[in-house]
Structures are given as C-alpha cells and as structure tokens.
Design goal:
Radius of gyration: 27 Å
Number of helices: 13
Largest sheet: none
Number of strands: 0
Structural class: mainly alpha
Distance between the termini: 46 Å
Shape: globular
Oligomer: single chain
Length: 376
Amino acid sequence: MEWSKEQIKKILFVITYALVLLVVVLNFDSVLGIAGKGLVLFTPFIVGLSMAFILNVIMRSIEKRLLAGVPVKLEKFKRPIALLMSLVLVIGLIFFLLFLVIPEFMNTIEIVSGKLPDAAKRFEAWSMGILGDLPIDLPDMEIDWSKVTDWTASFLGKGSSALFSTTLGITSSILSGLFNTLLGLVFAIYFLLMKETIGKQTKKLFYAYLSKEKVDKILSISERANTVFSHFVKGQFTEALIIGVLCFVGMLIFGMPYALVISALVGFTALIPVLGAFIGTGVGAFLILMVDPMKALWFIIFIVVLQQIESNLIYPKVVGDSVGLPGIWVLAAVTIGGSAYGVLGMLVGVPLSALLYSLLKDSVYIRLNHRNILIK
C-alpha cells in the first residue's frame, strides 16, 4: 500500500503535534514561565492594540460626522486631525479625572473623617428614632459611641498608612510600566495612521502563504471582531456618559451632597460591566452616609431605579445585542481581564470573550447539524 504525499503530511503533522504536546505536558511549569516572559515582551503591543481599538471608535466617528465635508485638498489631513482630536478628548477625560475628581474626592475623605464624631451621634439619634417607631419591644441596648468613634478613627488611621504604602507600590508599578504604556501609545498612533496600508499588507501576507478558504475565514472572523469591539466600546462609553450626567442631575434635584464627585465616580465605574455599579454605589453611599444617613438611603434607592432604567431602556438602545454574552461569562471576563490588565483588561475582556463565545457557539451548532443532533 502506497501512501500519497497528503497522507504522509497529515501523519507527520499528527506525530509532530503529539510530540510537542507531550513536551509541553512534561515541562508545563517551564513552558508556562517562558510563555509569561513572552507575554511580558509583547505587553506594549497588546496594550497598543487595545488603545488603537478604543481610539479607532472615536476617530472613525469624528471622520464620518465632524470631518465629512472636508475639501479634497485637505483630505490627506483628515486622518491626522481626527486622531489628534481623539487623543485630546481621551487625554482631557483622564486629566479631568486625575486633577479635578480625584483631588476633590481626597478632600471629601478628609472632610468626612473630621465629621465622624458628629456623624456617629446623628446616626445614633436617627437609628434610635427609627427603632422607636417600630411596633415591637426591643431589649435596651447601650452603645458607647465614643469608643466606636475612637475605634473608627484608629481604623482609618491604620488604613490610611496601609493605603499610603499601597499607593507607593502602585505608583512604583505605574512608573515601571510607563515605558510600556508610551511604547504602546506610539504603536497605536502608528497603527491608526496607517491602518488601511497595514490591512492591505496583512491580506497580501495571508493570501501568499495560506489557502483562500482559510484567509476568507480569518477575514470573516476579523470583521466580526471589529463589529463586536466597536459596538461595545462605543456603547459602553456612551452609556457611562449618560449614567454620569443623569446621576449628577438627579443628585442636584434631590439636594444630595458631593454631586460632582459621586456622579463622576458612578460614570467612570459604569465602564466596568457588572461590578462597576456596585463599586460606584457603595463608595457614594458611604460618603453621603457621613453627612446624612437618610439621604444615603435615598441615594441607594435612586441608583437602583437609575440602574433599572439603564438596564431596560438605555443599555439595549445604546449597546444593543452586539455582545450577546451571558452574565456569568461577563463576570468571568471582567475578573480575568481586570487581573491581567486592570481597567483596560476589563474593557477588552468582555468583547473578546463575546467574540470567542459566538465563534464557539457557531462551531457547536455546525457540528451538531452535521451529526443530525437536535438538543432542546
């Protein structure tokens, strides 16, 4: 029996694949370490590609809407102007958070710490009034609020020192990763300025070394990835802006304190799917609690109502069904992405998981249909 060249190639491929898999399994720790070092080397490019995806959404909107009527003579300046406007917008937002919201937030923490004794007394009077209105007899309970206040102040003192140490560690990490971030930004700018050229070069490379069917499949997956990422990023930022503005207007109407700081925090944390709402609500409620416990309760109710409006009206209209990822996998994507690359990982992790989920879903349905298996 003579084997054809194709059969020999397949057999050699299977043998090679089995040997490589065996080596990986036997030296899993070493392979994992090498993979980790390789990932560190490619971190600037991964960060740069993520930045490029986010900036491209803003840049494309500026090109289509603000710069649509640019004269033909100035057409070559359209892309650099759109990219510059996108960078100014993003950097302006970052500066707003760093130099306006964060100092105001730290100032608010200092004020709240100074008001702790008075807040404890007001909370005691408020809680005693609430308990006195209940139609049940409660045992007499005496609470030494001076000790509670002293313990809270001591806890905050220890926490502030721990927070200071943590801040130093974070600052050191930020400084050590500053070079990678700047290199990633340069890569993102280069990619966005020449994305059509890079796209053509990539297509030529694929068609030169791969079969047409494989390249068509890769391009189809790339189109789907671009659609999912673009819709998610655009929708998530638009939703965060709407939530922040609505929260600010609502807090002003109801006369709640720290409206600007809390609204900016709620809008920023809204970028994080699933967990963002709990973070913003928890911190905001704590700040208001130190001033007025009843307003803190009303703030929580207000945010819950706002979240319902957001989930049922704003999110379906703004983000739509482009993600299509079940809640449990969204939570997993946020957790893993946040552990790997922080907030940027949370933003990229959800659409990336949605893309992998949709591809796996299509593959499963194709295989089930091929085997004539119907599962209800």
